[in-house]
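2024-03-11 09:14:02 INFO worker-7 job=invfold-0412 stage=load source=structure_tokens
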């Protein structure tokens, strides 16, 4: 066997392992506490398309997002892209839902982890909160929960650096990042069309990830 063939086999085994670990999309849960409803982070579904369109009509949300979902068909294509990311092992996207005695709410926000197939590539978190849920620590709780999962031994992201990016000027996202153990470590220049604005880069040091994992 040539060196190239051996390397290809190693790559194939790595890809198979990552894909297998993402075959079943996970759901994360946080119990109700201190007056806050229980939180569920679950994969997006086609049934969420109309809610996504409604949330994306919010002027403030649209001002920070690069992708705007204006129709149900666009939202369903976006949901399909999230599922493809799960299958490829490069994206874990969650709808953020509250639940109580009456059952789960409609999605109130979104949080996703993205990376590349490289074994040590950083994992980047991004999130948004619907207009009616702002000010209730939805994003902070979701970020803490997903950070704990990403750093856990059972996660396909375990051992990778955790980062977070948001547009410069988005003070709410910046406060959330800082409060969840992601200090500001740099600024990424604008790079249209994918990154039309400069972005703040927050990187969680190992000890911060450990703290989040212990305290969550």
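2024-03-11 09:14:09 INFO worker-7 stage=emit residues=216
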């Amino acid at each position: 066997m040539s060196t190239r063939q051996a390397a290809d086999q190693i790559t194939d085994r790595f890809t198979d392992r990552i894909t297998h670990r993402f075959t079943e999309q996970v759901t994360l849960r946080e119990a109700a506490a201190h007056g806050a409803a229980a939180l569920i982070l679950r994969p997006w579904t086609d049934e969420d398309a109309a809610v996504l369109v409604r949330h994306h009509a919010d002027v403030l949300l649209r001002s920070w997002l690069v992708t705007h979902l204006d129709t149900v068909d666009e939202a369903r294509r976006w949901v399909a892209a999230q599922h493809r990311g799960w299958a490829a092992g490069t994206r874990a996207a969650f709808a953020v839902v509250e639940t109580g005695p009456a059952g789960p709410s409609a999605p109130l926000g979104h949080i996703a982890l993205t990376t590349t197939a490289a074994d040590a590539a950083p994992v980047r978190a991004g999130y948004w909160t619907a207009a009616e849920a702002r000010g209730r620590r939805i994003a902070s709780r979701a970020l803490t929960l997903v950070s704990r999962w990403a750093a856990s031994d059972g996660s396909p992201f375990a051992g990778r650096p955790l980062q977070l990016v948001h547009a410069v000027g988005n003070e709410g996202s910046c406060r959330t990042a800082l409060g969840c153990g992601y200090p500001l470590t740099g600024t990424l220049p604008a790079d249209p069309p994918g990154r039309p604005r400069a972005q703040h880069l927050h990187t969680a040091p190992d000890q911060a990830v450990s703290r989040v994992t212990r305290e969550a």
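2024-03-11 09:14:09 INFO worker-7 stage=report msg="The first strand starts at residue 28 and ends at 30."
2024-03-11 09:14:10 INFO worker-7 job finished
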